[in-house]
Each structure stands twice: as structure tokens, then as C-alpha cells.
Specification:
Number of strands: 3
Number of helices: 2
Helix content: 10-25%
Largest sheet: 3 strands, antiparallel
Bound molecules: zinc ion
Radius of gyration: 13 Å
């Protein structure tokens, strides 16, 4: 079953389980639309895989199969330490 992660792994913003602005790769690395379509340009920075929109889990299904509550730590990327 798909792990619905509660936050963007790039900018750490909250992503609701029913959000249509959630993107993920095949390993379930999860990003918001701004990051996925912006600086990540549709490619997962962890595995190099394709980012696609995360399917919405209907509210009725969420009652039975809730989204994950544990936040995924944001990975510090080398980009931030590089001199500009
Ligand atoms: Zn983000
Ligand atoms: Zn990935």
C-alpha cells in the first residue's frame, strides 16, 4: 500500500492526504507541486526517478487506511552548501 507521507521532502511543507498537489516517485519520496515542478523539474533528487502526481485516497478509505503521520526528514542537499 502506498505510504501517504505528510510532508514535502524538499521544503517540509504539509501535504494533506487528499491534496492534488502532491507528487511522488516510485520509492514514495513525496514532494509538493512547487518543488516537483519547480526546482526538481519532475525528477526525484534521491533516486533520479520520475515524479508523478500522487493519487488521492478517498476519505472513506482514509478512515480504514490512514495516511502516515510520521514526517519524513528533509534531506540536506549539497546545493545549499555550494558557493553561489
Ligand atoms: Zn516542497
Ligand atoms: Zn525517489
Amino acid at each position: 500500500m502506498l505510504a501517504l507521507r505528510p510532508n514535502c521532502e524538499c521544503c517540509d511543507r504539509d501535504i494533506a492526504p487528499d491534496s492534488r498537489d502532491a507528487f511522488m516517485c516510485s520509492f514514495e519520496c513525496t514532494y509538493c507541486r512547487d518543488c516537483a515542478e519547480g526546482e526538481l523539474a519532475g525528477t526525484c533528487p534521491n533516486c533520479g526517478g520520475e515524479l508523478v502526481r500522487r493519487p488521492v485516497r478517498p476519505a472513506a478509505a482514509l478512515l480504514k487506511f490512514p495516511s502516515r503521520t510520521e514526517r519524513t526528514p528533509v534531506k540536506r542537499r549539497s546545493v545549499e552548501t555550494k558557493p553561489s
